Amino acid sequence: MSKVREPQKVWDAAPVMEGAGVRLSRAFGHAQAPELDPFLLLDDIHSRNPEDYTAGFPWHPHRGIETVTYVLHGDVEHGDSIGNRGSIGDGDVQWMTAGSGIVHQEMPQPTRGDMRGLQLWVNLPASMKMMDPRYRDVKADTIPLITENGTRVRVIAGNYGGRSGPMKDLVQNPGYLDVTLSPGTRFGHNFEHDHTVFAYTLEGTGIFSPASETSVFEEQVVLYGPGDRVEITSGEKGLRFFLISGQPVGEPVAWRGPIVMNTEEELYEAFREYRDGTFIKVGEHP
Asked: 205-256 pLDDT, tens per residue?
């Protein structure tokens, strides 16, 4: 019989300032990352005030990770050192593998309504940290949407209900589901036993274990313990959350700013190369 996973920890996202002056909620980062392997960071921009986000994230480097940007509402213009330029909007996803090194910028655009976007960082194993960088732009209409019995699931990566997300050949075999439940709806999903699993709540409330009576609220992280399955029930106002999983890397992490390697020596080398102009191995500095 499968074992239902139980929440190990629940915590609130914390307000931080990033980029050139972007106000956002950090669901997790340095302090929590050792428990969330292979995931390093999850940031949530959510505002109706353009002054909170239009300073954006000007040109900056990455190495050794993948970044996953998901725009719920609004527009984000982007560009990078391997020649990609464009904009992602409502429901679009940008999955970027920094690999050996990429320089890029992400600039949220002003909107009269609600701007909301999330960025997830996924660590790469040592054997893949210096792979060629790659960029994939996933439009909203290519992401499978499954609706049944009060449940709406967008399958960004991994599998649900017999459908696969459009992201293929991902290094840590991640699953990334955007789940919306009507009030009082029960949701269940199976996972690889050894994968890290967490949920991040966007709207509403819910109970994230059949053995619990404690509700989880907006902008909270639920980190699950071991097992094969999660079961979640929405509250009286419904619930929207991300359910994310991945295979742990299980290696040392040396992390400073936008660069994540395995050793301090590799970090030093990466920053030295950036100063010397030899950081980019594929493409050109923009």
From this structure: 999 999 988 999 999 999 999 999 999 999 999 999 999 999 999 999 999 9
Cβ–Cβ under 8 Å, residues 41 and 63: no
Phi, psi of 264 (to 5 degrees): -65, -35
282 within 8 A of 132, measured Cβ to Cβ: yes
Q: pLDDT (tens digit, 9 = 90+) per residue, 131-142? A: 999 989 999 999
30-61 pLDDT per residue, tens: 999 999 999 999 999 999 999 999 999 999 99
SS3 38: coil
Distance CA 79, CA 85 (A): 4
Residue 68 has pLDDT above 90, yes or no: yes
Q: Rounded to whole angstroms, how far apart are CA atoms 249 and 126?
A: 9
Grouping H, G, I as helix, E, B as strand and the rest as coil, residue 245 is: strand
Q: 260 near 65, Cβ under 8 Å?
A: yes
Instruction: Give me 18's structure tokens.
Output: 């990033």
The secondary structure of 59-115 as a DSSP string is EEEEBSEEEEEEEEES-EEEEETTS-EEEE-TT-EEEEE-TT-EEEEEEEPP-SS-E
- Residue 270 CA to residue 275 CA, distance in Å, equals 9
Q: Taking the model in full, what pTM does it have?
A: 0.96
Length of the chain: 286
